[in-house]
Amino acid sequence: MKSKMLGVLVAAGTAVAFAATASAATLDDVKKKGHVQCGVNTGVPGFALPDSKNQWTGLDVDVCRAVAAAVLGDAGKVKYTPLTAKERFTALQSGEIDILSRNTTWTHTRDTSLGLNFAGVNYYDGQGFLVNKSLGVKSAKELDGASVCIQAGTTTELNLADYFKQNGMKYKAVVFDTSDQTRQGFEANRCDMLTSDASQLYALRTKMKNPNGAIVLPEIISKEPLGPVVRQGDDQWFNIVRWSMNAWINAEELGITSGNADKMKGSKNPNVKRLLGTSGDLGQKLGLDNAWAYRIVKQVGNYSESFERNVGMSSPLKIARGVNALWNKGGIMYAPPIR
Amino acid sequence: MADHQTDQNGTAPSKPPPWNDPVIRSIAFQIVAVILVGYFFYYILNNTLSNMESRGITTGFKFLDTEAGFGILMSLIEYDESHTYGRTFLVGLLNTLMVSVLGIILATIIGFIVGIMRLSNNWLISKIATVYIEVLRNIPLLLQIFFWYIAVLQALPGPRQSMRIGDSFFLNNRGLYSPRPIFEDGFGMVVIAIVIAIAAIVYIKRWAHRRQEITGEQFPVFWTSLGLLIVLPGLAFLVTGMPLSWEYSELKRFSFGGGMRIIPEMMALLWALTMYTAAFIAEIVRSGIQAVSHGQTEAARALGLRNGPTLRLIIIPQAMRVIIPPLTSQYLNLTKNSSLATAIGYPDLVSVFMGTTLNQTGQAVEIVAMTMAVYLTISLSISFVMNWYNRKMALVER
Questions:
Q1: Is A180 inside a domain boundary?
Q2: What secondary structure does DSSP assign to B253-287, as a single string?
Q3: Where does a domain end: A188, A222, A256?
Q4: In terms of domains, do A186 and A44 share one?
Q5: Does residue A193 lie in a domain region?
Q6: Which residue from B55, B73, B364 is facing A90, i.e. has the nearest CB?
Q7: Among the three residues A193, A222, A251, which one is the final residue of a domain in this structure?
Q8: For residue B288, how many other CB atoms are within 10 A of its CB?
Q9: Are strands A78-83 and A171-176 parallel, antiparallel or unpaired?
Q10: Has residue A337 been placed in a domain?
Q11: CA B341 to CA B325: how far, in whole Å?
Q12: CA–CA separation, A181 and B33 (whole Å)
């Protein structure tokens, strides 16, 4: 733990002290390195988890893959740094990673005081509760006096306090370092409930020995817009990450998939032509070539494909699109026009 | 150089020029070194601050006055979500200090017992001590903490199936519950009585010691002290009308409420730290005792002293001189190792302040620096006290 403490200080202190110039042009840096260094979760199914072939997969991972496809031409040119909630911002500030894509909630304080910028939202989440079925609890309002397993350094810690205060209830927070440890604490019956973003609750439940012994309560107590984060002061890189995500989402809206991307190149729809780079110079404006978005769709797929593959109906999590559906299909997922 | 040192006429050697004078030279070099090191740190600090400013990272210690807004599992002082981040620092610090102090006391007691057991002539006792030392010393502490935490959690029943002693004490996987004493008016008298009793004991001990030196007569100091400690406060308690009541724990919907509670994280951490450090202390005690010449024991026997007094009056005081310096290192280790608490969710300084607070505020440089300064201060304090004790115990040559 000592060495870890020292490590954080060294990362926070010396890297900030000496690496002032390195942050200026992340794009050049990435091109020189030949890979995108991506900060991800230590392991949440559906968002970031190494599969049986030790390939990282997940919705957060796909953001980094999209950026690598756009910048380097190959979605596979990503190296991953698994980070705990506590380490994540320091890792980004110090230049250890190029993108932080680690189900991070976009909040005012984080956006304004950390020297970081949120590039968009890749999943709209909300905080929920997982409780032991045998307690017979039907609503979060009945949880007065309960013990809560929770992960350190997350917005959920603050939301939990707010929610219980609003409802005049008391709780005891048992704080662990990683989400896996919160699950173990919950399974060992150290806590009556586990709280986290709802998507993570479903993911953690799939890892349990007895998934059916726990239920997710209906209450969602907070807004948790999750998205990738980059360093402040490098607008070009910020734009690349933001528009890689927008291209990803717009591709779904325009009906372009990894399967039909080549055929769509011949489309007469001017929006499709601009996105796939057969007309206009949108890629150059980002400092990339014109086929940047084509490669994203071809190699990673559009947003819908990523969603279904990682967290949706063709994954073990079986999360419905809900608010994450496109704006014209009843959700709030909305990307500005490619124009 | 040689021409300056000898003078054939026998007069005092002439002084070398200043740039050749070794004293002046060494002072000059040291001044230059201090300036360089000072400038290095100034440069780093200045550079860090200006870089953080240019990147829009908030700096400074203003965050300590901001409302924290998160709960902490265990606090020795009053704390809730509306207190400040500064308060979370104090809560974490006190939790760290508590587990360290308790750990040091328990590890010392167990370490001394095991160390002496290891030297026992009884084969079984000495082998038990050896196995204990060799096993615990050679397993990483973090694993032991996880082991005890999981062992504690798995072995204990849920709140509804608690183990209990009457209606006062309950043990389950949420902690150990006991009644909380509530002090009413007049309890101050009992406290005063205890203070008087202690003062009297100190005086009697000195008097008995003097008398024994003069007359050789012994006085039952221990039993008198024990009597005083029980009778005086007891009388005060009865006279003031028993100003003490108990608040009992009771089962609520999810768990017990009221009363006092020791959380399982604390039990596991304290147990693991104690057992681990005690193994090292046992070896230190053994080596200290073996360092005392066997002649001392024989001399004590020759004077007719039994085993107990021999150990207490002859061996241990001499062994302490060997024991104290390495013992200090173990105390320091235990305190620093307590930061492993964060792995099992015990709310110590690293978990509360360097974990949650750091994350909510994002001010890594300030918070990590503060945390390291705290551990440095605690460690230096322990060193200071132990060095003072060491000087006191050191051999005074006459």
A1: yes
A2: SSSEESSEEE-HHHHHHHHHHHHHHHHHHHHHHHH
A3: A222
A4: no
A5: yes
A6: B364
A7: A222
A8: 21
A9: unpaired
A10: no
A11: 26
A12: 49
Q: How far apart are CA A126 and CA A112, in angstroms?
A: 22
The model's pLDDT over A148-160, given as tens digits with 9 standing for 90+, comes to 999 887 788 888 9
Q: Are A198 and A140 in contact (CB under 8 A)?
A: no
Instruction: Please give the Cα distance from A267 to B3 (Å, whole number).
Output: 99
Helices of type H across chain B: 2-5, 22-54, 85-118, 123-137, 141-155, 187-215, 221-239, 264-291, 294-302, 307-309, 316-337, 349-351, 358-361, 364-393
Size of the A and B interface in Cβ pairs below 8 Å: 162
Q: Domain B85-168+263-393, what architecture?
A: Orthogonal Bundle (1.10)
Inter-chain contact A188–B253, Cβ cutoff 8 Å?
no
A29 closest CA partner among A211, A310, A205, A230: A230
Helix%, strand%, coil% for chain A, nearest 5: 45, 20, 35
Is A334 in the B-facing interface, judged by CB distances under 8 Å? Answer: no
Q: Render each residue's pLDDT in chain B as its tens digit; 398 residues.
A: 444 555 455 566 677 788 888 888 899 999 999 999 999 999 988 888 888 887 778 788 888 998 888 888 888 888 888 899 999 999 999 999 999 999 999 999 999 999 999 998 899 999 999 999 999 999 999 999 999 988 877 778 877 777 887 777 888 888 888 888 887 777 888 888 889 989 999 999 899 889 888 888 888 888 888 888 888 888 888 888 777 777 777 777 777 777 778 888 999 999 999 999 999 999 999 999 999 998 999 999 999 999 888 988 889 889 998 999 999 999 999 999 999 988 888 999 998 998 888 888 888 888 999 999 999 999 999 999 999 998 888 877 66
Q: Which domain holds residue A6?
A: 2-124+225-316
Same domain, A201 and A288: no
Is some CB atom of chain B closer than 8 A to the CB atom of A110?
A: yes
Are residues A112 and A234 part of one domain? Answer: yes
The helices-and-strands tally (H runs, E runs) of chain A is 14, 13
> Does one domain contain both A113 and A210?
no
The total domain count for chain A is 2
pLDDT bucket at A269, cuts 50 / 70 / 90: very high
- Angstrom distance (rounded) from CA A272 to CA A260: 12
Q: Closest partner residue to B355 among A2, A86, A189, by Cβ?
A: A86
Please check whether residue A9 touches B, CB under 8 A: yes
How is residue A333 written in tokens?
């997922």
Two structure tokens written together for A10: 């060294």
Annotated domain spans of chain B: 18-54, 85-168+263-393, 180-247
State whether residue B371 sits within 8 Å of chain A by CB. yes
Average pLDDT estimate for A285-308:
94
Q: What is the pLDDT of residue A275?
A: 94
Residue range A177-203, pLDDT digits in tens: 888 888 988 988 888 899 999 888 988
Cross-chain CB nearest to A5 (options B257, B265, B368): B368
Q: Please tell me whether residues A115 and A229 are part of one structural domain.
A: yes
Q: Is residue A329 part of a domain?
A: no
Residues A116, A151: one domain?
A: no
d(CA A112, CA B66): 16
- Contact A169/B at CB under 8 A: no
Say which CATH number the domain at A154 has: 3.40.190.10
A138 and chain B in contact, CB less than 8 A = no
Residues A292 and A229 in one domain: yes
Which residue shows structure tokens 């073990």? A316
Largest CA distance in chain A: 63
B151: which residues sit within 8 A by CB, 6+ positions away? B268
Dihedral sign for Cα atoms in the order B34, B35, B38, B44: negative
**Same domain, yes or no, for A115 and A244?**
yes
Structure tokens at B112: 């001394």
